[in-house]
Structure prediction request, 106 residues.
Amino acid sequence: MYSLRSQTTNEYCPTCHLRFEREPGFFYVAMFVSYAMNVAEMITISVAAYILGLALVYENLWIYAGIILVGVLLFAPFNYRYSRVILLHWLTPGLGYDPQAKEVKR
Prediction:
């Protein structure tokens, strides 16, 4: 999940050879999914910090901001990968595994 080299997405499925990118710029929509995941994570981290005893007062503003920033940075690779997975499997109609698909020549 975490590595020094950048994460990449396969162009074709190694099993059924389905082309993942349906059109140029297809994965730009995954940014919106990733944004929604980030917002949910920020809210969850904030509520968890409050429940664990960090008072919600002005003096703790920078502590909350730091905790949220660290959480967002830790979840960034997860969001990158799973926002694309959510886009491919749930938000793209007509895209699916075809066991009878023939080998595609590249």
